[in-house]
Amino acid sequence: MIIETDLFHHKLENMRQQITRELDQLETEENSLKGRQGTESLLAKEEAVRATNDLERSVALKERKRKILTEIEHALAKIRSGSYGICDSCGQPINHGRLEVLPYASQCIKCKGILKKTFKK
Fold first, then answer.
1. Which of 35, 66, 80, 113 reaches 20 to 30 Å from 12, CA-CA?
2. The pLDDT value given to residue 51
3. CATH superfamily ID and name for 5-120
């Protein structure tokens, strides 16, 4: 199977730029939320609770985006090394359709399924 890495490289670069922008935006929002946490009045305390909840969601979202960014960086490194589209676990080709949907996929469907089952136990 021949994979046109130029197309995937372009997609991955665009995804990396988008996620980097989103992470910057989340960082700005978090700083604003942190400023709303330390107030004294009852209304302000309710606002601080909302801000804390929003901050927790933001931190979780940021963590997920950082994980995806790491996966994108890994996929870009695989393009550079010539191993893009090859499963990290079994060494078999990753289905082209899977790469179309998830260009930073590093495992084939079969190996990803085995990994998920392993972590559920």
1. 113
2. 73
3. DksA, coiled-coil domain (1.20.120.910)
Helices (H) and strands (E) in the chain, counts: 4, 0
* Nearest alpha carbon to residue 66 among 105, 27, 103: 27
Evaluate the CA torsion angle 12, 18, 23, 24 in order and state its sign.
positive
For tokens 């890495």, name the residue: 5
Helices 42-81, 5-35: crossing angle, 10 deg rounding: 160
Span 19-75, pLDDT tens digits = 999 999 988 888 776 665 555 555 566 777 777 788 888 889 999 999 999 999 999
- CA separation for the pair 112, 109 (Å, rounded): 5
**Residue 86, strand partner residues:** 93
